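Notes to self after the call with IL:
- keep both proteins in one doc
- input above output, always
- annotate only the second one for now

Protein 1:
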Amino acid sequence: MVRSQDTTDEIERAIARISEQMNSNNHRTGLTTAQNAAGIAEMLDLGVPVERVSKELSVKRKAVKLLGAVGRREAARASLEEQGLTIEQAAIVAKFFLMWTSHGEPQPGSDQLVVGWCHARADREDRRNRVLGGPGRVRW
C-alpha cells in the first residue's frame, strides 16, 4: 500500500508507519504478543509518550508500559513465544535481564539463564504453595 506523506519529519513518518502497520496487521490477522511488544518498544524508543502510543494503538497505558519493557529485551520476547509466559511474567524477565546486564555480567546466551531462573523461581513458588496450602499462607 502506498500513501502520501503528511510530514517531512523522519521520526513522525516512522511513528505513523509503525502505528499503521500494527493496527492493520492486528485487524487483519493479529500479531503475536511478542510482535506487539517489539512494535510498542520501537515507538517508545522513538520518544513517543505512553499516552500517545496507547491512543494510537487502542491499548491501555499499563499494557503499553509492560509491552514496552518486554519488547526491549530479546529474552523477554522469546519467553512469550517459546516459554508461554504471560506478559506480566515476561516483564519480570525483562526487569531481571536489565539488572543482570547493568552489572556488567552478560555472557553469550545469558538470555536462557534468565528464562531458566524465572522458571526455577516459579517452580519454587508452586512447591511452596502446595506445601503451605495456598499462595501467601504461612505455616507455623
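Protein 2 (the one to annotate):
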Amino acid sequence: MFESVGWGEILIIVVAGLFILGPERLPEAAAWMAKSVRKVRDFATGAKTQLREEMGPEFDQLRKPLEDLRGLRNFDPKRVVTQHLFDGDTDPLGLKDVNGTKGANGSNGAAKPNGYPATASQPEPLKPGERPPVDPDAT
C-alpha cells in the first residue's frame, strides 16, 4: 500500500507531526494511527474471507482477471515480446552459452564484449618513464 513512500517522506511526516501536535500528543497520535490501520486491515481480511466463503469456487474465477491486470503494472515491452514470440525463452537463438563455458561475467569466454575475439596474451602496460618499442619496419 505504501510502497512508494520512502524514508525521507516518513521523516517529513514525523517532523510535521511533531510541530503540529507537539511532543506530548505525538505518541498518542501514532498509537491511534497504528490501531486504525490494524482495524482497516482486519476489516479487509474479514471481507475477503466472507466473500470467498459465500462465492465458493466462483471467487477464484473473479480473481483471475484482477491478477492479470496486476501483472500489467510491471509491463515491460521487451519481456512481453520475448514471451509471445519465443514462448518465454530469454535466449531463443542459444547465443549465451555457445561453447558451453561461461566466464565470470556471464559471457562464454570466446569473445570480448565488443564482439572481437579475445587474444591469448596481452602486452604488459608501460611502466612510468618507459618508452614503447620502436618498430624497425615503420621507417
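Annotation: The first helix runs from residue 7 to 21. The CA atoms of residues 38 and 60 lie 26 Å apart.
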